Amino acid sequence: METNRSVRDSVRAGRIPADANAYKSGTTPTLFPETRQIRCNAAGEYKLYLADAPTKDITITLLAGETLDWAVVKIADAADNTVVAEKAITLIW
Fold this sequence. Notes:
Blueprint: H1 7-14, E1 17-19, E2 24-25, E3 28-29, E4 37-40, E5 44-50, E6 57-62, E7 67-68, E8 72-77, E9 89-92
Antiparallel strand pairs: 1-9, 2-3, 4-7, 4-9, 5-6, 5-8
């Protein structure tokens, strides 16, 4: 039995995913708990609201498969500031 697990293995196993689309009120995106990471599943242009400045957004173009180790608290579609498409962005805590 292996008793020495690496920190990397322990952290990876503890990460919980969620769909960014679940955090909404109608078509308006809402705040969610600060993330450790976001994973892009659908390429596009997104507005990210970082934990350090939750009322200011940055617009970024992400490719499918791209991962950012950022503390994000809200994500919107950059085209019309609405909630992102279902399964477009995965949030990791």
